[in-house]
Write a structure and sequence with these properties.
CATH topology of chain A: ABC transporter involved in vitamin B12 uptake, BtuC
Oligomer: heterodimer
Distance between the termini of chain A: 57 Å
Radius of gyration of chain A: 20 Å
Largest sheet of chain A: 2 strands, antiparallel
Distance between the termini of chain B: 18 Å
Shape of chain A: globular
Strand order of the largest sheet of chain B: 1-2
Helix content of chain A: over 70%
Number of helices of chain A: 11
Mean pLDDT of chain A: 86
Number of strands of chain B: 6
Shape of chain B: globular
Order of helices and strands of chain A: HHHHEEEHHHHEHHH
Largest sheet of chain B: 2 strands, antiparallel
CATH architecture of chain A: Orthogonal Bundle
Mean pLDDT of chain B: 83
Number of helices of chain B: 14
Order of helices and strands of chain B: HHHEEHHEEEEHHHHHHHHH
Structural class of chain A: mainly alpha
Helix content of chain B: 55-70%
Number of domains of chain A: 1
Low-confidence stretches of chain A: none
Low-confidence stretches of chain B: none
Strand content of chain B: under 5%
Strand order of the largest sheet of chain A: 1-4
Chain lengths: 309, 357
């Protein structure tokens, strides 16, 4: 089995999931300059809700094809997450839009603690397994193997990202979003309903997070009430790596982070002569992140903002 | 213009201070009698967090540098103490030698961390400091091989308590006819150090350095244009904050007698940040208030089981599960109703009023 190709595939799959979550961070940041700390928890909620639906359906109707059950899970999880995103924006962020910058950050942390604990109260502290409903086929390509689930994740992620780019570049809503990101005040003077645009941004980001949550739980085969924390952290790092506020940057950053992680885990032992094992893969990822930011302080694709007083 | 500010009358001030000092001196006994020994321990912990919060306040509150990896310095101070005063390496140096060493080392690391991040601002700085914090934690978790430095996730045990000659803070002592237990004596030691940190913070705030930090926080370019050496002052803020963190870390190690990487995760950094923002950033009374409340609140919320019993006659939700939920609700609620913090400084209150109007 070719290790290089295998790590490349794993990295791309993982990275496309990170990219989906990172897009949610970057869209909100682009418009509000707010780190939506609760975004990782929305992803977790997407995974948990869909797993609950999938688990119930798999028990009730064992004959149903797996793809259909998965579709039902997504069909419930996406609206739930959208509603959550809308609610969080309305309750925790909108009243603080003119407050000092760190205040919404604290409410975001508060919201993520709340969501985590609600999930814990509903679904308990144990890991929830993903039922074996999906086809388990594996394909051999040039000595590496890729599973049906991985292919599905990659294809779906690419499709979603393309759609998002189309929406942002071609539709009225997308134009309003870009205008709001440039200047909220001027956009509202041009007749853009800024509040609606911001709410839509949260809704779209949350929908992406729901899909990403289902992907993660299908990929690893389990979900947990605490999974959103690390996932959100990595996705946010990916967004910053690419240049926060930039859609292409979030996609690039997500893919890069996934690749860095999988190659780091695969090769770090060889690189350091066995001194550092694969449990240092996160260190590796953070080192790359820091190095990139030190040399390009606004991320890979981030606009070079000229400082003005 | 309602009235000219009144001159401070010196007369009643000493009375207030005297009452405050008496209250603080008697507090552990009142708490011990009223709530039990475990709450005195919590009081010690609250003082430790006051120290940490005041340290981070220098970085975030004064200089405006959002640091999400502050707990790394706390960890560093704790591990330095553990290495030099536990059976792990067989060293048992006295605390008065280790504490300054740990604090100084943490300060040095503050400069090391600060140097590459000088060009970064805002959220980019936050993510890089967060990355540093996580790197340190992962190293602590894994440096049990090839050389066993940190003993991995098991942590280091049997750390020496603060001890001066034969006088150890881990045993009860009879003084002036009263028996002082270890947690009581620790309270006084921590209180003394907290007072020192408060004093330093106050003097810094009013100094040339403190005013330069405020200038950097408000507008770095304008500050540089007025001749402030922004690089050195930002590094100084990192170093000062880290020093306090390292000091608190050493005290934590001696107080607990046991440390493991679990105590120094990202959530801890976020908690300390919450203390500052919730209390009132850049304002010493606010920060102290925030630190005390956020340390005690999760413990107080353990009593929700009793409240449920009296209200509904039975326990519906395990209080251990409920308390963090309520804690999150409290964070959101306080920020919604007091976005500048519980006790904001006059300057921030003014800024907030300006932004709103």
């Amino acid at each position: 089995m070719d290790i290089f190709l295998q790590q490349l595939i794993n990295g791309l799959v993982l990275g496309s999931v990170y990219a989906l979550v990172a897009l949610g961070y970057t869209m909100v940041y682009g418009i509000l300059e707010l780190i939506n700390f609760a975004h990782g928890e929305i992803t977790m909620m997407g995974a948990m809700v869909s797993l609950a639906v999938i688990g119930a359906l798999a028990l009730a109707a064992p004959g149903l094809p797996g793809v259909l059950i998965l579709g039902a899970g997504l069909a419930v999880a996406i609206p739930v997450c959208m509603a959550l995103g809308l609610l969080i924006e309305r309750v925790a962020y909108r009243p603080l839009r003119h407050a000092p910058r760190l205040a919404p950050l604290i409410t975001a942390i508060g919201v993520s603690i709340i969501l985590q604990n609600i999930a814990m109260l509903i679904w308990g502290k144990q890991y929830i397994p993903f039922p074996a409903i999906l086809p388990q086929g594996r394909h051999e390509i040039l000595g590496a193997s890729i599973s049906d689930t991985q292919i599905a994740i990659l294809v779906l992620a690419v499709l979603i990202m393309l759609t998002l780019i189309l929406v942002v570049q071609k539709t009225r809503l997308g134009r309003a979003m870009r205008a709001t990101a440039q200047s909220r005040q001027v956009a509202s003077l041009m007749g853009v309903d800024v509040n609606r645009v911001i709410a839509s941004t949260f809704v779209i980001g949350s929908a992406l997070a729901a899909v990403a949550g289902v992907m993660v739980s299908a990929y690893y085969g389990l979900a947990h009430y605490y999974m959103g924390f690390l996932l959100g952290l990595k996705a946010f790092s990916a967004a910053v790596l690419g240049g926060i506020g930039n859609l292409g940057g979030a996609m690039l950053g997500g893919l890069l982070l996934g690749l860095i992680e999988s190659f780091g885990a695969g090769y770090i032992g060889d690189l350091t002569g066995g001194f550092l094992g694969s449990h240092y893969q996160d260190v590796f990822a953070f080192f790359v992140l820091i190095a990139v930011l030190v040399f390009r302080p606004s991320g890979l694709l981030g606009a070079r903002v000229v400082e003005r007083a | 213009m309602s009235s000219v500010p009144k001159l401070n009358k010196p007369q009643p001030r000493w009375l207030v201070f005297g009452l405050l000092a008496l209250g603080l001196a008697l507090l552990p006994f009142l708490v011990d009698a009223g709530l039990g020994r475990s709450w005195v321990r919590l009081l010690d912990l609250a003082l430790l967090y006051v120290m940490l919060a005041l340290g981070l306040n220098i970085v975030v509150g004064y200089a405006g540098l959002l640091d999400l990896g502050y707990v790394a310095f706390y960890a560093l101070g704790a591990y330095v103490y553990a290495w030099l005063a536990s059976p792990h390496f067989g060293l048992h140096l006295p605390f008065w030698a280790i504490l300054p060493l740990g604090a100084a080392l943490a300060g040095l690391f503050g400069v090391l961390l600060g140097t590459p991040t000088l060009r970064l601002r805002g959220d980019y700085l936050a993510i890089v400091t967060l990355g540093f914090g996580e790197i340190i934690r992962i190293f602590m978790n894994n440096l049990n091989a090839p050389v066993n430095l940190t003993n991995g996730p098991q942590g280091i045990n049997l750390i020496d308590p603060v001890r001066l000659g034969e006088f150890s803070l881990s045993q009860p002592h009879a003084l002036f006819g009263y028996t002082f237990t270890g947690v009581h004596l620790t309270y006084y030691l921590f209180l003394l150090l907290v007072l020192a940190v408060i004093f330093i913070s106050m003097r810094l705030e009013d100094s040339r350095i403190g005013r330069a930090w405020v200038a950097i926080r408000e507008d770095e370019i304008a500050a540089a244009a007025t001749g402030i050496n922004t690089r050195n002052l930002k590094l100084l803020a990192f170093a000062m904050g880290a020093t306090f963190g390292g000091l608190a870390g050493g005290l934590f190690a001696s107080f607990q007698g046991f440390i493991s990487p679990e105590s120094f995760n990202l959530m801890e950094s976020i908690m300390i940040l919450c203390m500052i923002v919730l209390g009132g950033m850049g304002h010493i009374p606010g920060v102290i208030f925030g630190a005390v409340v956020l340390t005690l609140l999760p413990e107080a919320l353990r009593y929700t089981g009793d409240w449920q019993r009296t209200l509904f006659g039975q326990i519906y939700i395990d209080p251990a599960d409920l308390r963090m939920l309520l804690f999150g609700v409290a964070l959101v609620a306080v920020m919604l109703y007091r976005p500048a913090g519980m006790i904001p400084s006059a300057r921030r209150r003014q800024e907030f009023a300006d932004a709103k109007g």
